[in-house]
Amino acid sequence: MATIEHLLRHADLADSPSARLDAELLLAAALGKPRSHLHTWPEREVEAEPAARFARDLLRRRNGEPVAYILGLQGFWTLDLEVAPHTLIPRADTELLVEIALERLADGPAEVLDLGTGSGAIALALASERPAWHVWGVDRVEQAVALAERNRARLGLANVQFRASHWFEAVAGEAFALIVSNPPYIAAGDHHLSEGDLRFEPASALVAGPDGLDDIRLIVEQAPAHLLPDGWLLLEHGFDQAGAVRQLLRQRGFVQVHSRCDLGGHERVTLGEWV
Predict the structure, then answer these.
(1) Per the domain annotation, does 74 fall within a domain?
(2) How many domains is the chain partitioned into structurally?
(3) Which three-class secondary structure string do you get for 105-174?
(4) Residues 156 and 231 in one domain
(5) Using one digit for the tens of pLDDT, what is the confidence trace for 68-79?
(6) Looking at the structure, do residues 137 and 43 belong to the same domain, yes or no?
(7) pLDDT at residue 199 above 70?
(8) Helix residue ranges per DSSP H, the chain
(9) Is the pTM of this model over 0.85?
(10) Could you tell me if 50 and 133 lie in one domain?
C-alpha cells in the first residue's frame, strides 16, 4: 500500500494551476478526512478502496473536470455548499459582492434580492450574516433552485427563500432595499469558454450576447421598478466591463455609481443607488 505522501507526490496534475491543492482535496475526500490529516500523518498507508477512488477522481481532474464538481462541494464565504454541473461554481471573487452588500445596509430588517442565484451562494452568505434580512434568491433553472433550497435546508437558514424566475418575472410587485447579481457576462465566442474549468460550467450562466452585457442591460433597465427609494443595485461583471456598466447605470438614472476592485486589482463589482 502507498502512503499519503507517496500518493500526493505522484498525483500528476501538472496541467492544473493548483495541482497540490487539488490532489489534497481529492485525497482528503477519498479518505473522509480533513486536509489537516494529510499533513499530520503523511506516512500513513492508504487502504485499497480510498486509493482507488483517489485514482478515479485524479483521472477526472486530469481530463479538466473541476474539483468542485468531482466532490460536489465548494467553500464560499463561511459556508460549504453543494454544487452541480447545472450551476456555476462559486468563486472567491464573488465574495466581494457579499462584502459590499453587507456594507450597504444596516443590520435591521430589509428585503434583499439575489438575481441568478445558482447554488444560492450569495443569498445564503447574506442570510447567514444578517438574520434580520429576508433574502430572496431567483434563478431560471429549476434544478438550480432545487439545489439552492437543499443548501438552505442543510444550513438551517430560515430567512431566505428561493423561486424559479427569469430575472424579475416571479417578483412582480415586490420592492427591495438591495438587489445583487452575478449574472452571465462573458461575450459569445470568448476563447476562455473553451479553456479550463469553464468548459464544464453551464454556458447559460456564463454567456450574455456579443459583448457579454445583454443580461446586465436587462437588469439595469428593470431593477428600478423593484427598488425602494435609496435602494442599491450591485452587479458583478468582467474585469474589463466596469466602464460600460457604470455608463449603463448612469444613463438609467442611478446615482453614486462607482466600481470596486477584487483582490487582483480588477474592477469587479459596480453599484448604484436609486433615489
Answers:
(1) no
(2) 2
(3) CCCCCEEEEEECCCCCHHHHHHHHHCCCEEEEEEECCHHHHHHHHHHHHHHCCCCEEEEECCCCHHHCCC
(4) yes
(5) 999 999 999 999
(6) no
(7) no
(8) 4-9, 19-31, 35-40, 48-62, 67-71, 95-104, 121-129, 142-155, 214-222, 242-252
(9) yes
(10) no
